[in-house]
Amino acid sequence: MRLSHALHLICLLILTGPAQADPITMDDFLPTDPAQARLGQLLFYDPILSGNRNISCGTCHHHSLASGDGLSLGIGEGGRGLGKDRTPGTGPDQIRKRIPRNAPALWNLGHKSIRVLFHDGRLEISDQYGNGFDSPAEEWLPQGLNSILAAQALFPLTAQFEMAGNVGENDVTGAVHDRIDLGWPVLAKRVRTIPEYGALFVEAFAHIDTPAEVTIVEIGNALGAFMASEWISIDSPYDAWQRHGAPLPPAAERGRQLFFGKAACSTCHAGPLFTDQEFHALGLPAFGPGRTRIFDPMPRDVGRMGETDRIEDAYRFRTPSLRNVALTAPYGHNGAFATLEVMIRHHLNPAVSQASWQEADAGLPAVPWLAVSDFAIRQDRLEMARQARRLDIGPLPVSGTELSDLVAFMRALTGKNVTTRPLGRPDRVPSGLPVD
Protein backbone atom coordinates (compact mmCIF):
# COMPACT_ATOMS: atom_id res chain seq x y z
CA MET A 1 0.00 0.00 0.00
CA ARG A 2 1.44 3.40 -1.00
CA LEU A 3 -0.68 5.91 0.83
CA SER A 4 0.36 9.50 0.06
CA HIS A 5 -2.73 11.69 -0.23
CA ALA A 6 -1.84 12.82 -3.76
CA LEU A 7 -1.43 9.28 -4.98
CA HIS A 8 -4.70 8.26 -3.39
CA LEU A 9 -6.52 11.03 -5.17
CA ILE A 10 -5.01 10.04 -8.51
CA CYS A 11 -5.92 6.39 -7.95
CA LEU A 12 -9.48 7.21 -6.98
CA LEU A 13 -9.93 9.42 -10.02
CA ILE A 14 -8.62 6.75 -12.35
CA LEU A 15 -10.49 3.80 -10.88
CA THR A 16 -14.13 3.58 -11.88
CA GLY A 17 -14.58 0.58 -9.60
CA PRO A 18 -12.64 -2.22 -7.97
CA ALA A 19 -10.30 -3.74 -10.57
CA GLN A 20 -7.98 -6.70 -10.50
CA ALA A 21 -5.70 -8.80 -12.69
CA ASP A 22 -6.90 -11.56 -15.00
CA PRO A 23 -7.45 -14.97 -13.35
CA ILE A 24 -4.27 -16.90 -12.70
CA THR A 25 -3.86 -20.32 -14.35
CA MET A 26 -1.32 -23.13 -14.48
CA ASP A 27 -0.18 -21.80 -17.85
CA ASP A 28 1.28 -18.82 -15.98
CA PHE A 29 3.89 -21.01 -14.26
CA LEU A 30 7.24 -22.30 -15.41
CA PRO A 31 7.17 -25.87 -16.72
CA THR A 32 9.09 -28.30 -14.52
CA ASP A 33 10.36 -31.85 -14.93
CA PRO A 34 8.75 -34.23 -12.38
CA ALA A 35 11.93 -36.28 -11.93
CA GLN A 36 13.93 -33.14 -11.24
CA ALA A 37 11.29 -31.94 -8.78
CA ARG A 38 11.40 -35.26 -6.89
CA LEU A 39 15.17 -35.00 -6.70
CA GLY A 40 14.85 -31.38 -5.58
CA GLN A 41 12.49 -32.41 -2.78
CA LEU A 42 15.18 -34.65 -1.31
CA LEU A 43 17.89 -32.02 -1.68
CA PHE A 44 15.62 -29.36 -0.14
CA TYR A 45 15.35 -31.35 3.09
CA ASP A 46 18.86 -32.83 3.11
CA PRO A 47 21.39 -31.22 5.52
CA ILE A 48 24.15 -32.47 3.21
CA LEU A 49 23.94 -29.07 1.49
CA SER A 50 25.00 -27.20 4.64
CA GLY A 51 28.59 -26.69 5.61
CA ASN A 52 28.29 -28.57 8.91
CA ARG A 53 25.59 -30.98 7.68
CA ASN A 54 23.16 -29.72 10.33
CA ILE A 55 20.54 -27.60 8.54
CA SER A 56 18.57 -27.83 5.30
CA CYS A 57 16.56 -25.46 3.14
CA GLY A 58 13.45 -27.02 4.68
CA THR A 59 14.48 -26.02 8.20
CA CYS A 60 13.53 -22.41 7.48
CA HIS A 61 10.99 -23.12 4.71
CA HIS A 62 9.07 -26.02 6.16
CA HIS A 63 5.87 -27.64 4.96
CA SER A 64 4.40 -27.55 8.45
CA LEU A 65 5.02 -23.78 8.63
CA ALA A 66 3.50 -22.74 5.28
CA SER A 67 6.96 -22.63 3.63
CA GLY A 68 8.40 -20.31 6.29
CA ASP A 69 9.69 -20.69 9.84
CA GLY A 70 7.17 -18.68 11.89
CA LEU A 71 9.88 -16.47 13.41
CA SER A 72 10.56 -12.77 13.03
CA LEU A 73 14.26 -13.46 12.50
CA GLY A 74 15.39 -17.03 12.05
CA ILE A 75 17.93 -19.18 13.83
CA GLY A 76 20.15 -20.67 11.20
CA GLU A 77 23.24 -22.88 11.27
CA GLY A 78 23.90 -24.27 14.76
CA GLY A 79 20.28 -24.17 15.93
CA ARG A 80 18.03 -27.08 16.83
CA GLY A 81 14.34 -27.74 16.14
CA LEU A 82 11.69 -25.97 14.09
CA GLY A 83 9.71 -22.75 14.21
CA LYS A 84 9.01 -21.18 17.59
CA ASP A 85 10.55 -24.20 19.31
CA ARG A 86 13.90 -23.74 17.57
CA THR A 87 16.74 -23.25 20.02
CA PRO A 88 20.06 -21.48 19.35
CA GLY A 89 22.41 -24.36 20.10
CA THR A 90 24.93 -24.81 22.87
CA GLY A 91 28.68 -24.75 23.38
CA PRO A 92 30.79 -24.44 20.22
CA ASP A 93 27.69 -25.05 18.07
CA GLN A 94 25.70 -22.10 19.40
CA ILE A 95 24.71 -19.44 16.90
CA ARG A 96 26.78 -16.27 16.65
CA LYS A 97 24.12 -14.14 15.00
CA ARG A 98 20.42 -14.23 14.18
CA ILE A 99 19.44 -14.33 10.52
CA PRO A 100 19.01 -10.60 9.79
CA ARG A 101 15.78 -10.90 7.80
CA ASN A 102 12.50 -12.76 7.94
CA ALA A 103 12.38 -16.04 6.00
CA PRO A 104 10.08 -15.31 3.01
CA ALA A 105 7.35 -17.74 2.03
CA LEU A 106 7.78 -19.67 -1.23
CA TRP A 107 4.24 -19.56 -2.60
CA ASN A 108 3.96 -19.17 -6.37
CA LEU A 109 7.60 -18.24 -6.96
CA GLY A 110 7.49 -20.37 -10.09
CA HIS A 111 5.18 -17.83 -11.73
CA LYS A 112 6.59 -16.63 -15.02
CA SER A 113 6.34 -12.99 -13.94
CA ILE A 114 8.88 -13.35 -11.11
CA ARG A 115 11.94 -11.30 -12.05
CA VAL A 116 13.48 -10.27 -8.71
CA LEU A 117 14.01 -12.09 -5.40
CA PHE A 118 15.19 -11.45 -1.84
CA HIS A 119 13.92 -8.60 0.33
CA ASP A 120 16.46 -6.21 -1.20
CA GLY A 121 16.20 -7.56 -4.76
CA ARG A 122 19.84 -8.59 -4.94
CA LEU A 123 18.93 -11.34 -7.40
CA GLU A 124 17.37 -10.24 -10.69
CA ILE A 125 16.94 -11.64 -14.16
CA SER A 126 19.55 -9.75 -16.16
CA ASP A 127 22.17 -10.15 -18.89
CA GLN A 128 24.63 -7.95 -17.01
CA TYR A 129 27.12 -10.75 -16.27
CA GLY A 130 26.39 -13.04 -19.19
CA ASN A 131 24.87 -15.79 -17.04
CA GLY A 132 21.26 -14.63 -17.00
CA PHE A 133 21.26 -12.94 -13.59
CA ASP A 134 22.46 -9.95 -11.61
CA SER A 135 23.38 -11.64 -8.34
CA PRO A 136 25.81 -11.45 -5.42
CA ALA A 137 28.03 -13.90 -7.34
CA GLU A 138 28.23 -11.52 -10.32
CA GLU A 139 30.29 -13.13 -13.10
CA TRP A 140 31.08 -16.16 -10.90
CA LEU A 141 27.51 -17.45 -10.96
CA PRO A 142 27.71 -20.54 -13.24
CA GLN A 143 26.01 -20.77 -16.60
CA GLY A 144 23.03 -23.07 -17.08
CA LEU A 145 20.71 -22.19 -14.21
CA ASN A 146 17.30 -22.43 -15.83
CA SER A 147 15.22 -20.14 -13.59
CA ILE A 148 15.56 -17.39 -11.04
CA LEU A 149 14.46 -19.93 -8.42
CA ALA A 150 17.34 -22.21 -9.37
CA ALA A 151 19.75 -19.30 -8.96
CA GLN A 152 18.19 -18.24 -5.66
CA ALA A 153 18.59 -21.72 -4.20
CA LEU A 154 22.38 -21.47 -4.31
CA PHE A 155 22.85 -18.41 -2.10
CA PRO A 156 21.70 -19.67 1.32
CA LEU A 157 24.30 -22.42 0.85
CA THR A 158 27.06 -19.78 0.85
CA ALA A 159 25.69 -17.67 3.75
CA GLN A 160 27.70 -18.07 6.96
CA PHE A 161 24.84 -17.81 9.43
CA GLU A 162 22.24 -19.53 7.27
CA MET A 163 23.78 -22.77 6.03
CA ALA A 164 27.55 -22.47 5.42
CA GLY A 165 28.80 -22.19 9.00
CA ASN A 166 31.68 -20.23 10.45
CA VAL A 167 35.14 -19.98 8.93
CA GLY A 168 37.34 -22.80 10.19
CA GLU A 169 34.44 -25.18 10.80
CA ASN A 170 34.24 -26.89 7.40
CA ASP A 171 35.62 -26.89 3.88
CA VAL A 172 32.56 -25.22 2.37
CA THR A 173 32.67 -22.00 4.34
CA GLY A 174 36.45 -21.88 4.02
CA ALA A 175 36.13 -21.95 0.24
CA VAL A 176 33.34 -19.36 0.25
CA HIS A 177 35.51 -17.08 2.37
CA ASP A 178 37.98 -17.00 -0.52
CA ARG A 179 35.31 -16.40 -3.18
CA ILE A 180 31.56 -16.89 -3.15
CA ASP A 181 31.46 -19.55 -5.88
CA LEU A 182 34.22 -21.78 -4.55
CA GLY A 183 32.04 -23.58 -2.02
CA TRP A 184 29.58 -24.88 -4.60
CA PRO A 185 31.93 -27.50 -6.13
CA VAL A 186 32.57 -28.86 -2.64
CA LEU A 187 28.84 -29.35 -2.09
CA ALA A 188 28.33 -30.83 -5.56
CA LYS A 189 31.01 -33.45 -4.88
CA ARG A 190 29.39 -34.32 -1.56
CA VAL A 191 26.08 -34.94 -3.28
CA ARG A 192 27.15 -36.78 -6.42
CA THR A 193 29.35 -39.24 -4.52
CA ILE A 194 26.31 -40.56 -2.64
CA PRO A 195 25.26 -43.48 -4.88
CA GLU A 196 21.52 -42.90 -4.55
CA TYR A 197 21.86 -39.25 -5.52
CA GLY A 198 24.18 -40.11 -8.41
CA ALA A 199 21.59 -42.47 -9.89
CA LEU A 200 18.79 -39.93 -9.43
CA PHE A 201 20.72 -37.23 -11.27
CA VAL A 202 21.44 -39.56 -14.19
CA GLU A 203 17.73 -40.37 -14.33
CA ALA A 204 16.51 -36.78 -14.03
CA PHE A 205 18.90 -34.94 -16.39
CA ALA A 206 19.24 -36.07 -20.00
CA HIS A 207 22.71 -34.56 -20.36
CA ILE A 208 24.10 -36.35 -17.29
CA ASP A 209 25.51 -39.78 -18.17
CA THR A 210 27.53 -40.43 -15.02
CA PRO A 211 27.37 -39.00 -11.46
CA ALA A 212 30.80 -37.42 -11.96
CA GLU A 213 29.19 -34.90 -14.33
CA VAL A 214 26.89 -33.44 -11.67
CA THR A 215 27.64 -29.82 -10.75
CA ILE A 216 25.99 -27.19 -8.60
CA VAL A 217 23.97 -26.20 -11.69
CA GLU A 218 22.03 -29.48 -11.69
CA ILE A 219 21.56 -29.19 -7.94
CA GLY A 220 20.18 -25.66 -8.34
CA ASN A 221 17.91 -26.67 -11.21
CA ALA A 222 16.52 -29.61 -9.20
CA LEU A 223 15.86 -27.37 -6.19
CA GLY A 224 14.25 -24.79 -8.48
CA ALA A 225 12.01 -27.42 -10.08
CA PHE A 226 10.85 -28.56 -6.66
CA MET A 227 10.10 -25.09 -5.33
CA ALA A 228 8.40 -23.98 -8.53
CA SER A 229 6.02 -26.95 -8.63
CA GLU A 230 5.56 -27.61 -4.92
CA TRP A 231 4.24 -24.25 -3.77
CA ILE A 232 1.69 -23.37 -6.46
CA SER A 233 -1.50 -22.13 -4.81
CA ILE A 234 -4.22 -20.67 -7.04
CA ASP A 235 -7.43 -22.14 -5.57
CA SER A 236 -8.45 -19.50 -3.03
CA PRO A 237 -12.00 -18.12 -2.61
CA TYR A 238 -10.78 -15.05 -4.47
CA ASP A 239 -9.73 -17.24 -7.41
CA ALA A 240 -13.17 -18.87 -7.42
CA TRP A 241 -14.75 -15.40 -7.46
CA GLN A 242 -12.54 -14.34 -10.35
CA ARG A 243 -13.06 -17.43 -12.45
CA HIS A 244 -16.64 -18.36 -11.76
CA GLY A 245 -18.23 -15.45 -9.94
CA ALA A 246 -18.53 -17.47 -6.75
CA PRO A 247 -19.48 -14.85 -4.14
CA LEU A 248 -17.02 -13.97 -1.43
CA PRO A 249 -18.27 -13.73 2.16
CA PRO A 250 -19.77 -10.25 2.72
CA ALA A 251 -16.85 -8.95 4.80
CA ALA A 252 -14.31 -10.22 2.27
CA GLU A 253 -16.26 -8.65 -0.59
CA ARG A 254 -16.30 -5.30 1.20
CA GLY A 255 -12.58 -5.75 1.83
CA ARG A 256 -11.99 -6.49 -1.85
CA GLN A 257 -13.64 -3.24 -2.84
CA LEU A 258 -11.55 -1.36 -0.28
CA PHE A 259 -8.37 -3.11 -1.38
CA PHE A 260 -8.80 -2.15 -5.03
CA GLY A 261 -10.50 1.16 -4.27
CA LYS A 262 -10.37 3.54 -1.33
CA ALA A 263 -7.46 1.90 0.51
CA ALA A 264 -5.40 1.69 -2.73
CA CYS A 265 -3.61 -1.45 -1.53
CA SER A 266 -3.41 -2.65 -5.13
CA THR A 267 -1.18 0.29 -6.02
CA CYS A 268 1.73 -1.86 -4.79
CA HIS A 269 0.09 -5.23 -4.20
CA ALA A 270 -0.76 -5.53 -7.88
CA GLY A 271 -1.14 -8.28 -10.46
CA PRO A 272 -2.01 -11.96 -10.05
CA LEU A 273 0.49 -12.43 -7.21
CA PHE A 274 -0.47 -9.19 -5.45
CA THR A 275 3.00 -7.66 -5.76
CA ASP A 276 4.48 -5.05 -8.06
CA GLN A 277 7.94 -6.52 -7.34
CA GLU A 278 9.13 -3.00 -6.58
CA PHE A 279 10.65 -1.53 -3.41
CA HIS A 280 8.96 0.67 -0.83
CA ALA A 281 9.86 2.16 2.56
CA LEU A 282 7.27 1.18 5.16
CA GLY A 283 9.03 2.47 8.26
CA LEU A 284 8.94 -0.87 10.10
CA PRO A 285 10.35 -0.86 13.65
CA ALA A 286 14.07 -1.64 13.50
CA PHE A 287 15.71 -4.45 15.47
CA GLY A 288 18.02 -7.42 15.05
CA PRO A 289 21.60 -7.66 13.80
CA GLY A 290 20.86 -5.77 10.59
CA ARG A 291 22.24 -6.70 7.21
CA THR A 292 25.61 -5.10 7.73
CA ARG A 293 28.22 -4.41 5.06
CA ILE A 294 32.02 -4.34 5.31
CA PHE A 295 32.08 -0.54 5.24
CA ASP A 296 28.85 -0.14 7.26
CA PRO A 297 29.03 -2.34 10.38
CA MET A 298 26.07 -0.70 12.13
CA PRO A 299 23.29 -3.17 13.05
CA ARG A 300 20.83 -1.65 10.60
CA ASP A 301 19.24 -2.75 7.37
CA VAL A 302 19.27 -0.21 4.55
CA GLY A 303 17.23 -2.46 2.27
CA ARG A 304 17.43 -1.90 -1.47
CA MET A 305 20.24 0.63 -1.05
CA GLY A 306 22.49 -2.22 0.04
CA GLU A 307 22.21 -3.58 -3.50
CA THR A 308 22.10 -0.37 -5.57
CA ASP A 309 24.15 2.04 -3.38
CA ARG A 310 21.61 4.75 -4.24
CA ILE A 311 20.50 6.90 -1.33
CA GLU A 312 16.97 7.10 -2.73
CA ASP A 313 16.66 3.34 -2.21
CA ALA A 314 17.46 3.52 1.51
CA TYR A 315 15.13 1.48 3.74
CA ARG A 316 13.05 0.27 0.81
CA PHE A 317 12.14 -3.42 0.59
CA ARG A 318 10.47 -5.63 -2.01
CA THR A 319 6.68 -5.80 -1.96
CA PRO A 320 5.71 -9.32 -0.85
CA SER A 321 3.00 -11.38 -2.50
CA LEU A 322 -0.22 -11.60 -0.51
CA ARG A 323 -1.28 -15.05 -1.64
CA ASN A 324 -1.66 -17.25 1.47
CA VAL A 325 -0.58 -14.23 3.50
CA ALA A 326 -2.82 -15.28 6.39
CA LEU A 327 -0.56 -18.31 6.89
CA THR A 328 2.84 -16.62 6.72
CA ALA A 329 3.11 -14.50 9.88
CA PRO A 330 5.05 -12.66 11.17
CA TYR A 331 5.08 -9.86 8.61
CA GLY A 332 7.58 -7.41 7.18
CA HIS A 333 11.20 -7.81 6.07
CA ASN A 334 12.14 -8.33 9.71
CA GLY A 335 8.91 -9.93 10.91
CA ALA A 336 8.06 -6.94 13.09
CA PHE A 337 4.31 -7.63 13.23
CA ALA A 338 2.70 -10.83 14.45
CA THR A 339 -0.73 -10.50 12.86
CA LEU A 340 -2.29 -9.26 9.66
CA GLU A 341 -4.37 -6.74 11.56
CA VAL A 342 -1.41 -4.98 13.15
CA MET A 343 0.52 -5.06 9.87
CA ILE A 344 -2.36 -3.36 8.07
CA ARG A 345 -2.72 -0.86 10.91
CA HIS A 346 0.91 0.04 10.41
CA HIS A 347 0.30 0.74 6.71
CA LEU A 348 -2.62 2.99 7.62
CA ASN A 349 -0.70 5.05 10.20
CA PRO A 350 3.00 4.20 10.44
CA ALA A 351 3.89 6.97 12.88
CA VAL A 352 1.37 5.80 15.47
CA SER A 353 2.37 2.20 14.87
CA GLN A 354 6.06 2.94 15.36
CA ALA A 355 5.36 4.78 18.62
CA SER A 356 3.28 1.94 20.06
CA TRP A 357 5.52 -0.96 19.00
CA GLN A 358 7.20 -2.83 21.84
CA GLU A 359 10.26 -5.05 21.80
CA ALA A 360 8.10 -7.91 23.03
CA ASP A 361 6.21 -7.69 19.71
CA ALA A 362 9.19 -9.23 17.93
CA GLY A 363 9.01 -13.01 17.65
CA LEU A 364 12.57 -13.78 18.71
CA PRO A 365 13.46 -17.04 20.47
CA ALA A 366 15.58 -16.30 23.51
CA VAL A 367 19.29 -16.10 22.80
CA PRO A 368 20.80 -14.68 26.00
CA TRP A 369 24.23 -13.94 24.53
CA LEU A 370 22.64 -11.86 21.76
CA ALA A 371 20.06 -10.05 23.90
CA VAL A 372 22.11 -6.88 24.30
CA SER A 373 22.47 -6.46 20.55
CA ASP A 374 18.94 -7.45 19.51
CA PHE A 375 17.56 -3.94 19.96
CA ALA A 376 20.76 -1.88 20.07
CA ILE A 377 19.93 0.01 16.87
CA ARG A 378 16.86 1.51 18.55
CA GLN A 379 19.14 3.48 20.87
CA ASP A 380 20.67 5.33 17.92
CA ARG A 381 18.59 8.51 17.82
CA LEU A 382 20.00 9.76 14.52
CA GLU A 383 19.50 6.43 12.74
CA MET A 384 15.91 6.19 13.99
CA ALA A 385 15.28 9.68 12.66
CA ARG A 386 16.71 8.75 9.26
CA GLN A 387 14.47 5.72 9.03
CA ALA A 388 11.41 7.68 10.14
CA ARG A 389 11.95 10.26 7.40
CA ARG A 390 12.14 7.62 4.65
CA LEU A 391 8.51 6.66 4.22
CA ASP A 392 6.45 5.81 1.15
CA ILE A 393 3.19 5.39 3.04
CA GLY A 394 1.26 7.92 5.07
CA PRO A 395 -1.92 8.17 7.15
CA LEU A 396 -5.18 6.99 5.59
CA PRO A 397 -8.43 7.14 7.56
CA VAL A 398 -9.98 3.68 7.69
CA SER A 399 -12.56 2.65 10.25
CA GLY A 400 -12.29 -0.37 12.50
CA THR A 401 -14.93 -2.16 10.46
CA GLU A 402 -13.08 -1.41 7.23
CA LEU A 403 -9.86 -2.74 8.75
CA SER A 404 -11.64 -5.98 9.62
CA ASP A 405 -12.98 -6.18 6.08
CA LEU A 406 -9.47 -5.81 4.64
CA VAL A 407 -8.28 -8.65 6.86
CA ALA A 408 -11.24 -10.76 5.70
CA PHE A 409 -10.31 -10.17 2.06
CA MET A 410 -6.69 -11.11 2.63
CA ARG A 411 -7.84 -14.31 4.32
CA ALA A 412 -9.82 -15.00 1.16
CA LEU A 413 -6.48 -15.22 -0.67
CA THR A 414 -5.71 -18.49 1.14
CA GLY A 415 -5.79 -21.55 -1.10
CA LYS A 416 -8.17 -24.42 -0.31
CA ASN A 417 -5.46 -27.06 -0.63
CA VAL A 418 -2.50 -25.33 1.00
CA THR A 419 -1.83 -28.29 3.28
CA THR A 420 -1.93 -30.81 0.43
CA ARG A 421 1.27 -30.40 -1.55
CA PRO A 422 2.37 -32.52 -4.53
CA LEU A 423 5.39 -34.05 -2.76
CA GLY A 424 5.54 -32.76 0.80
CA ARG A 425 8.30 -33.47 3.27
CA PRO A 426 10.28 -36.69 2.67
CA ASP A 427 10.63 -39.19 5.50
CA ARG A 428 14.29 -39.80 4.64
CA VAL A 429 17.04 -38.36 2.45
CA PRO A 430 19.86 -40.19 0.60
CA SER A 431 22.60 -38.84 2.85
CA GLY A 432 21.05 -40.62 5.83
CA LEU A 433 21.13 -37.38 7.85
CA PRO A 434 18.12 -36.46 10.03
CA VAL A 435 15.20 -34.71 8.32
CA ASP A 436 13.71 -31.70 10.15
Quick gist of this model?
Helix content is 32%, strand content 3%. With 436 residues, it is mainly alpha-helical.
What does this protein look like?
The structure is a single chain. The protein has 436 residues and is an all-alpha fold. Helices cover 32% and strands 3% of the residues. The protein contains 17 helices and 5 strands. The strands form 2 sheets. It has a 3-stranded antiparallel beta sheet with strand order 1-2-3. Strands 4-5 form a two-stranded antiparallel sheet. Strand 1 and strand 2 form a beta hairpin. The protein starts with a helix and ends in a 25-residue tail after the last helix.
Proportion of residues in extended strands: under 5%
Q: SSE string, helix = H, strand = E?
A: HHHEEEHHHHHHHHEHEHHHHH
Please describe the biggest sheet, giving its number of strands, its sense, and whether it closes into a barrel.
3 strands, antiparallel
- Total helical elements: 17
User: What Rg do the Cα atoms give?
Assistant: 22 Å
How many strand segments? 5
Shape: globular
Q: Mean pLDDT, nearest integer? A: 94
| SS-based class | mainly alpha
Uncertain ranges = 1-18
* Strand ordering within the main sheet: 1-2-3
The helical percent reads: 25-40%
Q: How far is the first residue's CA from the last residue's CA? A: 36 Å
